[in-house]
Amino acid sequence: MASTATIKSFPLPPAFTAADLYSIDEDGNAAAVNAERVSRMNRTTRAASQSGAHPVYQGMQNASRSQESFQALKRPPKLTGTSTSKNGSNYTPPASPTSPRSPTSPRSPTSPTSPTSPTSFAHEGIEGPRRRAASTGNRMNLNTLQTSSWVRESVYQSSPIRTAFRPDRLDRGPNELFNLLPGEVLDLVLQSLKGSHLNWNSESCATCMMRDLCSAALCSRRLYKHARVALYEDIQLVGSDSAAHKKKFKQNQGNRMSMLRRTLRTNPNIASLVRSLKVPHPEPPLNWSVSKGMLWLEQYEDQVATLIMACPKLERLSGPTPNYDHSFRKIFHALSTRKCLKDMTWVIDPASTPAQQQGGQRTDSPSKRGQSGPSMLEPSQGDAFLDSHRNWSSLTSLSILCQPGATLAPHRLLSRTLTHLPSLQHLHLCNLPPNAFNDNNLLSLPPLKSLILSRIVGITSNGLTSFATRSNTSHLQRLELRNTPLTSLPALARIFSHLPALKYFYLAQSFPPVMPETDSFALWMMPYLASSTIVKLHWDITSHPNTTNEADDILARSIEAGGFPALTTLRTPNDPEGRFQALCRPVDHIILPNDRFQRLNAMGGIPASGSFSAPSSPISPLHKSSTTMSLPLTIYATPLPGTDLQTARLAAQSRLEAAHNAPRFRFTIAADDGLAQTLGTVGFIGTLGSKISYHLLPDDGAVDEQGGLVDVADMVGDGGEALGGSREGCTGRWNQKEGEVADKKEKEKWWHTERGRWQRIEAI
């Protein structure tokens, strides 16, 4: 009795015959299948004989039109030296080159090939329910086999990675599985290794990271290529040199930079890998005094300049940034020659010589200088600053901080400078005087993705409104206004409505924007302030610490009316009545564990600035304009840095605890005996279902005392490199197990000089 089965047919390689491709009926048997096949072939034979479309060979004119003759007619000519079946019984060895060719026809009815004996799949048509003639167009050859689905399946099944990972493989060579991993996987592994050392909450440091990358590079030749790229593309030299290096090279600082410079100069391939470079903070010599001068600082800057020149594709220089006083410095000249530079931070000092007008013009009077700011630069100084930007066609981020008394006047200087930066996307300006940046400069800015204006007193609300309505601001995603005279609330409404891509908006100033009396009727139409794209909003008005001002009230009502549908993060440090906290998602607690017990990064602790010059003095008063004449006199006072976030968290937590004692809902439970009991659920502050989070944490790199915002002074600061006070460094033993006994050599292997955990701080 014949058994039946169901087989899913797939195209098969040439090793299988055409008979193996026939589909088997589940309800039939082998005899029925063969009978149906013969009947179908007979019908095809009669149709072919009636049509007479194919010529008949001479030796077959008197032969009956049988199944064999039809197969012979439909079969293409057979090449000399080939066989019909390689593995079957009808296999014929290739003819000898010296034997004469047989005069008989290559297609003979007495040929051993018959319909019942399968032929080679590479030379025969597929016979069966869908039998077709084996013409050149439909005959399966090597070209069609390569594009068939069975070929793709066979390539996947026989791939080297799948074959090597088979569990029955016992003949694996050394490192066979590791060598089959793609390079992208190795890069991800090394990036994860670097992240485990350099994260904000990591106990390790950059020195431990470089040590582990060096160990990974020595594991195998294949991993060496990827580990070398991960090691040299972002070089971080943090902290002071070790005592052994100081003794060996007889230098107090710069020993690691000297060794790195020698490596980069002798190996150009490694030098071309460097993209980011972090230089250590300069250290004065032990016997240094003010009377001996600053020769050691000049030597340090020159050493950094030579290291920059050894990196042809440098994109970023991190660490302490020397101040620029419009005089020639080797370090700034070296940076100006790096054509791949993408990030630059300027800390402008007053000019080394008094700025004077050229061409016999008189200088500004003292009263005029007090109104317009510092005097202008000399033409040669302006041209030198402009020439420094000519090679930076790849620069994407530019930050400029003017120290008190410094300037970039005339205002056309900055506009001309930005024309040499076609790739600029992020601009951060801080404390520029009115004669260096005003409304004209604001309107001439190129298309940007982020703009930060901190203590820019030369612009007005009308200038901000005109800037928002320009076509080149359609891609602006981030706008920060810190202590900038935004005096008009309608101007803020126009900014929100005319920036279609704005996602992050920050406003921090000591006075609230006011609403003109003629536009008071518009407050009945809520939301007055609206933006469909803003995701994060920072709002800090410091002039009303105890009551809600009018601008806060309008913003809170606008958010409640649905004016910010995409808003997910709201940071309002000055929220005395909890208006904004009530609009956000309810939370259990807001304060951090150490807010009530200690204060980190106290004002009298480690200085935030890591520049080479003295800390900046208070900012000059705000210059009066036509739009600020009606404001109170507090606008001209020294701007406050911002509301302390630690104080804001404590105030928000006290409001939250007070709400816990006041039940939000009350339930009355009645018993069968008629007694009723009233229970109240614990209260909370917030709106159920709201997707807005009440965020009172500083940005990465910022501190609570500054309002949680990153400024240029933070970007050029130490970034956690300096040690002292409550700040502890890393000695390389962060992963040492407790109680494990190791010999002296093993301890020295993992130990290194104590260095701080430096973090790169970015305002973008």
UniProtKB/TrEMBL annotation:
InterPro entries to which the protein is assigned, alphabetical: LRR_dom_sf
Listed Gene3D superfamilies: Ribonuclease Inhibitor
Low complexity biased stretches: 98-120
Disordered: region residues: 38-141, 351-383
Biased composition (Polar residues): 41-52, 59-70, 80-91, 353-374
Domain of life: Eukaryota
SUPFAM superfamilies xref list: RNI-like
Protein name: F-box domain-containing protein
UniProt organism field: Trichoderma gamsii
